[in-house]
Specification:
Layout lengths: L3 H8 L17 E4 L4 E7 L2 E2 L2 E2 L11 H23 L5 E12 L7 H16 L6 E7 L8 E9 L2
Parallel strand pairs: 5-6
Antiparallel strand pairs: 1-2, 2-7, 3-4, 5-7
């Protein structure tokens, strides 16, 4: 039987994928503080083994498409989180999200792009999905991804 968060994901039409393997020398997540803090490494907008959104915001990607990319990144973060904790109902708080937006030099709407991930976090976890956040524009990301999102989560022991 699906838990509360898995049921909410289903209501939103979201099926979490199999977590992607790291593409370099890092682990996909680290569990700290006696199992009550989980840090998930940055996830790009992978779908079925391929980066679904490539290019730079303000050049080949518009804000709405960037928001979709950020949302897909968060879906991949949640897949890693579920691998780390087993049951997403254990998540008591989305503590922090970090967003990296590949953008051209004149692009300044990074925060609006990252709202794709932030809005989904609140839709999934409710008030516990409200989080601290950093959003940074960068000249490029791995595999030409348009967006990358990382997360930190408080989890019940």
């Amino acid at each position: 039987m699906a838990g509360r968060i898995e049921s909410r994901l289903a209501e939103l039409g979201i099926t979490l994928p199999v977590p992607a393997a790291p593409v370099a020398n890092y682990v996909p997540f680290t569990v700290l503080a006696g199992g009550t803090l989980v840090v998930v490494s940055g996830q790009v907008p992978m779908r079925e083994g391929k980066v679904a959104f490539t290019g730079k915001l303000g050049e080949v990607i518009d804000i709405e498409t960037g928001q979709q990319a950020a949302q897909l990144c968060l879906i991949n973060v949640l897949a890693q989180l579920r691998a780390a904790v087993g049951d997403l109902d254990r998540v008591t708080r989305v503590a922090r999200l970090g967003g990296f937006i590949a953008a051209g030099p004149g692009f300044t709407q990074h925060a609006q792009v990252m709202n794709g991930a932030s809005d989904l976090a609140v839709a999934v976890f409710g008030e516990a999905g409200r989080h601290a956040r950093s959003t940074i524009g960068v000249p490029s990301l791995p595999m030409d991804a348009a967006v990358e999102v990382e997360g930190m989560f408080e989890v019940a022991a």
